[in-house]
């Protein structure tokens, strides 16, 4: 957490703004304040503050779970990891206890990176591909076709859950939406990726895109205190629902371990092949 839908929600928030928080697009950066040096993956704090000063925000994108704030010279890449969130607010607001980085604009607003568990990271880099170039295809893009997906599946022999969590295979998937997509596609998370047929790959491809799009429409999932912006948790079918009846067959949802992750399945709808 956050996964693709939650990060996309933050992207739209920064781009479009909301009541009381304007878009940051077009704003000029006055300076930056760093409260925890390890927040920066690159460059060093002194260089970061010097380089970011005076740049304009020219665009806001997303690649997988990474937010890309395009500046006039560099790109500010933010990976929220477990507990990161971004807040656009007036500079007169009290500084939050868990603020790790603040970017002050030349007007009355600032962008604050709140990061309770300190796992989130920030890069200020000229070429974003140095950070995001290793990522797999975006699952909601037109060039991510069922045929391409099946080919990627066949090129590896991994458990499906492990495969889908690997950002080098597909960018943006995490625990929640992986479990939901596998349930919707009626596939067991321990199935090996290279055993998936063309028809099964198409079914999973559809399911992945559906759950991600529904997640975005509902501004993501608010499972715990780490992310409280969304409503999609109201529509989850298996994730975090151990013991609850399956919506299709009424069998109790089970929690198992795959790739050292808690994984939620319906043992009837998602049978493991003999």
Structure write-up:
This protein has 274 residues and is an alpha+beta fold. It has two domains: 4-132, Alpha-Beta Barrel (N-terminal domain of MutM-like DNA repair proteins), CATH 3.20.190.10; 146-265, Helicase, Ruva Protein, domain 3, CATH 1.10.8. It has helices at 4-16, 45-52, 129-132, 146-154, 160-165, 175-184, 198-217, and strands spanning 29-34, 40-42, 57-63, 66-71, 75-79, 84-90, 99-105, 109-115, 121-125, 254-258, 261-265. It has a five-stranded mixed sheet with strand order 2-9-5-4-3. Helix 1 (4-16) runs parallel beside helix 7 (198-217). The longest helix is centred in the last third of the chain and has 20 residues, at 198-217. It is elongated and about 60 Å long.
Q: How far apart, in Å, are the first and last alpha carbons?
A: 33 Å
The CATH homology group name of the largest domain: MutM-like, N-terminal
> Would you tell me which CATH topology of the largest domain applies?
N-terminal domain of MutM-like DNA repair proteins
Provide the CATH architecture of the largest domain: Alpha-Beta Barrel
Largest sheet: 5 strands, mixed
Helix-strand pattern, N to C? HEEHEEEEEEEHHHHHEE
Based on secondary structure, the structural category is alpha+beta
Shape: elongated
């Amino acid at each position: 957490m956050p996964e693709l839908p939650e990060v996309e929600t933050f992207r739209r928030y920064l781009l479009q703004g909301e009541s009381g928080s304007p878009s940051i697009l077009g704003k000029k950066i006055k300076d930056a304040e760093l409260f925890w040096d390890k927040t920066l993956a690159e460059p060093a704090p002194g260089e970061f503050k010097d380089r970011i000063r005076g740049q304009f925000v020219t665009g806001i994108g997303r690649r997988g779970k990474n937010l890309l704030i395009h500046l006039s010279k560099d790109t500010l890449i933010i990976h929220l990891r477990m507990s990161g969130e971004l807040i656009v607010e007036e500079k007169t607001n009290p500084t939050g206890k868990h603020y790790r980085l603040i970017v002050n604009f030349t007007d009355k607003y600032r962008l604050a990176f709140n990061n309770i568990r300190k796992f989130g990271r920030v890069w200020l880099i000229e070429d974003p591909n140095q950070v995001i170039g290793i990522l797999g295809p975006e699952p909601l893009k037109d060039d991510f076709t069922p045929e391409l997906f099946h080919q990627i599946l066949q090129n590896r022999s991994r458990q499906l859950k492990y495969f889908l969590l690997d950002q080098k295979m597909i960018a943006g998937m995490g625990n929640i939406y992986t479990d939901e997509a596998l349930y919707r596609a009626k596939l067991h998370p321990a199935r090996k990726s290279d055993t998936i047929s063309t028809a099964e790959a198409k079914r999973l491809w559809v399911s992945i895109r559906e759950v991600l799009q529904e997640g975005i429409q509902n501004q993501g999932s608010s499972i715990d205190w780490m992310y409280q912006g969304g409503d999609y948790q109201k529509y989850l079918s298996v994730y975090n629902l151990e013991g609850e009846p399956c919506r299709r067959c009424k069998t109790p949802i089970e929690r198992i371990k795959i790739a050292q992750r808690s994984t939620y399945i319906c043992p009837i709808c998602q049978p493991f092949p003999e």
